[in-house]
Amino acid sequence: MARVIVRSWQETYRGLMADGVLDDPGQVAFRERFWTAALVDERYRANRVAVAVRDGAVIGVAMAGPPAAAEPGWNLHLYVLYVLAEHHGSGAGAALLDAVVGTREPAALWVADPNPRAQAFYRKHGFVADGAVQVEDGVREIRMVRSGVPFPASR
């Protein structure tokens, strides 16, 4: 899972995020510690985690859970959704999204801007930009939200 996240960051954020962060040799070990905690630590118990596997290898990872701060209109935050670039368009991303955020659930997420491919993916699944912007790790992000209106399954 950690290797998929780090490789996805390198594929997605090159040019948006500092190379020193993307190429940090300690990044995989750091992410492994995070995922170990996310999977076993009581404070992450309410989170939903899913992986996409092809030919016995993890190709995508997703995690959603309660937002850090309560927000009106949604009570689920998509924290992680990454699929290796060679598997974009395979349906893995949609399956991961459906696994951690039900098609009828209101939810929010932060997505890099610019990242037209990801933003189009989320729009296809009922998310819209709500005007909120933040900068994290030097990357500008916009918030996208989905209301609780039923949205057709993406499969």
Q: Could you explain the architecture of this structure?
A:
The C terminus is likely disordered. A 6-stranded mixed beta sheet has the order 1-2-3-4-6-5, sandwiched between helices. It contains 5 helices and 6 strands, in the order αααβββαβαββ. By secondary structure, the chain is α+β, with helices and mostly antiparallel strands. Helices cover 31% and strands 30% of the residues. The protein is globular, with a radius of gyration of 15 Å. The longest helix has 14 residues. The protein starts with a helix and ends in a 9-residue tail after the last strand. A hairpin with a 2-residue loop joins β5 and β6. It has a domain of 100 residues: Gcn5-related N-acetyltransferase (GNAT) (Aminopeptidase), CATH 3.40.630. This is GNAT family N-acetyltransferase.
Question: Which key phrases capture this entry?
Answer:
155 residues, alpha+beta, Aminopeptidase, globular
Mean model confidence by pLDDT: 91
Strand-pairing-aware structural class: alpha+beta
Please give the share of residues in helix: 25-40%
Distance between the termini: 23 Å
Radius of gyration, in angstroms, nearest whole number: 15 Å
CATH class of the domain at 47-146: Alpha Beta
Which spans have pLDDT < 50 for at least 5 consecutive residues? 151-155
Number of helical runs? 5
Rough shape?
globular
Looking at CATH, the homologous superfamily of the domain at 47-146 is Gcn5-related N-acetyltransferase (GNAT)
The CATH topology of the domain at 47-146 comes to: Aminopeptidase
Number of strands: 6
Write the CATH architecture name of the domain at 47-146: 3-Layer(aba) Sandwich
Largest sheet: 6 strands, mixed
β-strand percent reads 25-35%
Q: Which strand order spans the largest sheet, edge to edge or round the barrel?
A: 1-2-3-4-6-5
